[in-house]
Amino acid sequence: MILPWVIFIGFVLCMLALDLGVFHRKSHAVSFKESMGWSAVWITLGVSFSVLVYLAYEGHWFGLGLTPDSVDGLLNTGKLAATKYLTGYVVEESLSMDNIFVIAMIIGSLGVPARYQHRVLFWGILGALVMRGLMIGVGVTLVHHFHWILYVFGAFLVITAIKMLLMKEKEEHPEESFLIRWIKRSFPITKHYHGQHFFVKAGSAASREAAEPGEEAKDDPVVSAAPSGKWLLTPLAVALVLIEATDLIFAVDSIPAIFSITADPFLVFTSNVFAILGLRSLYFALAGMLEKFTYLKPALSLILLVVGIKMLAAKWLKLWLGDSFNVIILGVILGILVTGVVTSLLLAPKHKDA
After folding, report:
1. Which of 211, 233, 255 is the last residue of a domain?
2. What single DSSP character describes residue 201?
3. pTM > 0.85: yes or no
4. Which burial class, exposed, middle or buried, applies to 248 when counting CB atoms under 10 A from its CB (0-12, 13-18, 19+)?
């Protein structure tokens, strides 16, 4: 049973190595065209993986689909597994959209140079994969041994969705957060960016590197005052820590959401991984257009509400909707997401003019 995990994780690591080591070996500002291309690659891979899921569970490759799913007690056939995977992927990808808003706010408030944004997001996504893997492992264990916790997850999602719908937007300043204040008190942080480095050593060549190639290096008072050889954090490291913390916060919503669909660890993990891997490219594609998606956040709130209600009333909904239960849920979630995006594009300009 460990072999499919090894193959999948190996594939993901190879893709990440190819991304950073070949296509983005040299730091550069990611263009809209490039980001759309990579978004298409990751979305195509994520959706196409459902075909492999179907074949693997239908043929019980490596023992997949032979253990009852703790959520509904059913054995996952090829069709059922593929439907659950796609539903989980769409839910996680949808909820990741909200993460993009916050990441854009962090990068904007800290003034991360455009050419280094891919680097900080790459390592942020890698850290997110590790954190989510651990959280999924804990979640699967809890659901397997304590089925009633699904109702706790469901109630939590419904309350979160209602709060998101009712609470007004407030202007946030990530650079003034408690986490940043704690980092500044605990670690020495350089005043300026030093190339693509997360850490620099006082007196080293890296500490004298300019934020942008071709620019003259600015005198950094923090570096100058530090003893030679002392390690210092750069603002790029601060941005990375904030992005990791943000993903941890969002995972508290998205991880319970996936357990409304399935507790099969392979389906949960793979759908999460593909959604997160596409997040970085989607950021570069959407960061400049976020203000246009006025109705996306309410749509995401409704998606959370749907999965929360599904978790609380799964037995009754299944009796009402029949064997096509999971397909209908997938259709509803897709419908809400598409409606939110289309409505934003059609009505946001008029709303803004008004």
Report:
1. 233
2. E
3. no
4. middle
